[in-house]
Fold this protein.
Amino acid sequence: MDDIDRESFSVLSQDSDAETDILEGDWTPDFQKNQKRMSFIKRIRKLCGKDDGMTKPLNVVIIGPAGVGKSAFINTVGAAFDGVCWREHSYSGSHGEAGGQITVFTTSYEKCCNAPKYPNDLLPTLIDVAGFHDQAGDEFVELLRIVFYGRLPVGESLAEAAKYYKDCGLEGLRTKYNRNNEKLKVDRVIFLSSATQLVPTNLISCVMEAARPSGIRDKKRTIPLYGVMTKYDKVIPQEEFEKLKEDTGNQSATIDVIGEEDYAKRERQFIEALGLGGSKHRFLRCSNYCDDVDKNNRRMETVIPDLDLPVLKFFTQVADPVMQVLNKGESYSKGIAPETVPVQDAAAKTQTPSQKDGTQVRGSRMGIVENFGETGVSVLLITIEAIFVAFFLSLLLKPQVDVNKVKVACQFMSDRKTPHAQAGMSDICKDVNGSDVWCGFTFYLALLILIIIRVASTLFTIKIFRRN
């Protein structure tokens, strides 16, 4: 107890926002690390703010190829925020030589795995998406955009979306996922790579194109990127690594460790591929809670501060609101190139072979409407409608007598200059002489007023519909 900083403990206990459930009997040599851990959590809580039921939390998607430890990383983040013990929020593990991946569906973990000590804080939501491979192509970029715009529902995997693309083409894919809401619209992208695996450069290039577009084809929504190199505990001295390779007959592919020098090259390549050069505050070397790190399963009873601190320090940058999503309000449909025409429901049985292999369908009724614009079509239809209505109004306002015959009579009486006839016909002739002008004027006035009212009401309705 004499070696403990009692003054620091006293100040910590008086802090209303700090954890105060530490008793003197609980003090351990890790006290200073625990104190630092709580300091990081306090900072993150302030950055995230309180959960008022109205503010949307930060949605953080965890991306990486199979085997890099996405699920283990999510569990590590959960343990760091929990501060009591490790829990398996995300099903993690390995099939070993059998291959394959554990996570198969999209899953979200609210408030950083629902840290029980902070129920009123709006901690980030972590999104784990299965189905990523180190591949490239426009179709894969589109799959990533579906994820980033929150269009991939929880419980569905990218493998399902990829199969839909194969069966129905790119526009069928866009049409289907454009119907979903954007609840899980991504605010941060954390890309994971393993220290013991090659850097997935193809997948990184696709992520960069989907998350940080150049503005081509109206894809302007730009999301902050972060990088995590997992399995840092597998990095060993280079001499030891070289000796291990010699002992195994230079079969480095079977070695689950990496030398320091080789790792430094791999880390540099990873940072450059993500564009994090000069921004290493958005990069983390991470060792996850796992059997290799915790051989005695201490994590079942307590946390390991040496694993928690780097993760929490990293999340002070992830949660910082100073990092903004550019064009945050842009929807998935606005990011689709305007010249493309969505096909009909891709699940229809009447698809032709050209539709199934991704060929765009043009000239359909939907294509004409989209190319012309729904507002232009509405105005055109309203104008036609107004012409017909105004025409019928003019018929209703038309006098019931033959105006031309009355004019002849008036002219005859005028030529005769009969005083009695003029006295009786003067008012009638006066009204008839202005009737043609009045009928033409009412027709065009009714037409103009009707068009203005209908166009204004329709545009207002379209605006309200789009806003909702």
Q: What stands out?
A: The chain has 16 helices and eight strands. The mean pLDDT is 75.
